[in-house]
Structure formats: C-alpha cells, structure tokens
Design brief:
The protein is mainly α. It has one domain. Helices cover about 60% and strands about 0% of the residues. It has five helices and no strands. The protein has helices at about 10-40, 45-55, 65-75, 85-95, 105-115. Helix 2 (about 45-55) runs antiparallel to helix 3 (about 65-75). It is globular.
C-alpha cells in the first residue's frame, strides 16, 4: 500500500481490483476442489487416520477431538453437511468446531485445514 507512483489509485480501487482477480481466478478453483472432496468417499479407518493427523499436527486443540469425532461418525439430523462419508463431510465436521476457538486461532486453524484437505493453491 506504500508504493510510489500511485497517483489517482485509491485503496478502494485496489481492493476492488483484488476482489475481481480473486473472483475470476480463485473461486472457480475452490469450487473444483470442493467438488473433488465431495466425491472422495472415506472409509471409517481413513477418516479416523485423518482425524488423528489433524490433532497430531495440532491444527486443533485436543479438547475438540470428541466433538469432531461425534460430528463425523454420529451427526445429528441438523448436520446434513457432515452426513456424507466423504472428505468434504469430514472437513465440515472439523470446521463446525472452529467457532469454539478464538478468532485468531480459528483463522489459523482454518488455513491449516484448507492446506491439509487440499483447498488451497500450491505454494509458489
């Protein structure tokens, strides 16, 4: 934001340009990645391994292990986003618990979970 030669370029205009770039390039990529996760069925053993990996890497605090496991393996009738036994269903089971964290911790966890589940672009 502190570049030279920005006469006539307001920060509002910069945000608009950045938003347009994001909507044009990143949203379609994210949509494809979500569609892939929705198609990737998980066995119970594979789901347990992925849940273990989430907590072993300390992406979430261990106090959320029981809730995440219950969300995926025994969701209540209102948790339709967790019902499909897919990677997307597991992702939803995990991210349902993010509001129980502080905003900073929830943001960091969400980014790390996105990487683990393949929802982010590869580092360039």
């Amino acid at each position: 934001m502190k570049r030279r030669n920005t006469t006539g370029l307001t920060s509002r205009r910069r945000w608009a340009l950045a938003s347009d770039r994001y909507l044009q390039s990143d949203i379609p990529v994210l949509d494809r990645q979500v569609a892939l996760l929705q198609q990737m069925a998980l066995t119970d053993q594979a789901a347990k391994l992925l849940i273990f990996e989430i907590f072993a890497q300390q992406l979430l605090p261990s106090r959320l292990l029981v809730a995440v496991t219950r969300n995926y393996f025994d969701p209540d009738s209102t948790m339709t986003d967790c019902l499909p036994r897919t990677r997307w269903g597991l992702h939803n089971s995990v991210t349902r618990e993010l509001p129980r964290l502080s905003p900073v911790r929830a943001f960091a966890a969400n980014v790390a979970l996105g990487r683990l589940f393949g929802l982010t672009r590869a580092e360039q």
